[in-house]
Amino acid sequence: MPHAKPRLIVIDTDPGIDDAIGILLALASPEFTIAGMTTVAGNIGIETTTRNAGRLLAFAGREDIPVFAGAATPLSRPGPEPLNLHGKDGIGGADLPDPTKQPENQPAVAWLTELLLNESAGTVDVLALGPLTNIARLILEKPEAANRIGRIIAMGGVVHEAGNVGPRSEFNLWADPEAAAVVVSSGLPLVLVPLDVTRQVRATRDFAEALSATGMPLAAMVADLLESYFETTTHRESRPLHDPCVMLFALAPELFRLEDLRLTVSTGSTEEAGALTIGEKGTLVQVAMSVDGSAVLDLLAAKLTAI
Ligand code: BDR
Ligand code: CA
């Protein structure tokens, strides 16, 4: 049977241990053609997230994929102090090579604009793994290009559960709530993958050990990343694979259940910033609300061990 044409994607990211796993999954998936990666400050500052994107590509032998540095600070408030959730290098001390290629000179939003205007409308998807600053800037500054996005699939927010930075706030939306509000209210095709789902996709030590035992390079690197993920988070039994869920949804939407929800994003006080509210005034968004956790973990392992 002939393969379907690969989908053209941009990965917008702040690597980030779980970003790194999502990026390696995308690199292992022939279903995607990665046009480029745009970076954003989030898990750590922009210089380090940009460098980490380059290090991942160097490791995978894919420095043909360009990296464009994006926003260093949120749209309209001072950046949060780096939380260094993912270690001092933002990526858990992973043993990744230095990039041999510099990031491109063109800023992320300028490149995204050019790409979207050059490709047929609706053919480029944006897989968003960090704060939504770059995408919001594109929408605000270059709406004619933003309107040509096929679909944005973004890890962010929490609907019914507790947040991970505030009672109702998830990190990516909290880190730049004004940007999140722009993206959610834009009416562009958007699938949000919130904590409610990503917490159902949990890597255990057994999962990491099984990947490591394959001896395959991408799988072994993901096992190392998972090991540092366990270490940076007080040696818990399992860790949620937030960002890889974006790629997993793009690869196998049938393993997720979507709900159409009318959402608004709070741009209020620090504690409430980024909180999602369901209500009539909100914008209709597709939200992944449940997932077959073991099936997507199997898919992740299968992809990482296939090359
Ligand atoms: C999100 O926050 C970051 O720390 C992770 O990389 C993920 O994108 C989860 O809330
Ligand atoms: Ca991230």
Describe this structure in words.
- The chain is α/β, with parallel strands linked by helices.
- It has one domain: Ribonucleoside hydrolase-like (Inosine-uridine Nucleoside N-ribohydrolase, Chain A), CATH 3.90.245.
- It is 37% helix and 20% strand.
- The chain has twelve helices and eleven strands.
- The protein has a nine-stranded mixed sheet, sandwiched between helices. The chain has a two-stranded antiparallel sheet with strand order 7-8.
- It starts with 6 loop residues before the first strand and ends with a helix.
- The mean pLDDT is 94.
- The site of calcium ion (CA) has 8 residues, from loops.
Strand line-up across the major sheet: 3-2-1-4-5-6-11-9-10
Low-confidence stretches: none
Structural class: alpha/beta
How does the major sheet shape up? 9 strands, mixed
Radius of gyration (CA) equals 18 Å
Bound molecules: beta-D-ribofuranose, calcium ion
Number of strands: 11
SSE arrangement, N to C: EHEHEHEHHEHHEHEHHEHEEEH
CATH superfamily: Ribonucleoside hydrolase-like
Structural domain count: 1
- What would CATH call the class? Alpha Beta
Q: Overall 3D geometry?
A: globular
List the helices and strands and how they pair.
Blueprint: E1 7-13, H1 17-27, E2 32-39, H2 46-60, E3 67-69, H3 108-118, E4 124-128, H4 133-141, H5 143-146, E5 149-155, H6 171-175, H7 177-185, E6 190-193, H8 195-198, E7 202-204, H9 205-214, H10 217-232, E8 238-240, H11 244-251, E9 256-265, E10 276-278, E11 283-291, H12 293-304
Helix pairs in contact: 1-2, 1-10, 1-11, 3-4, 4-7, 9-10
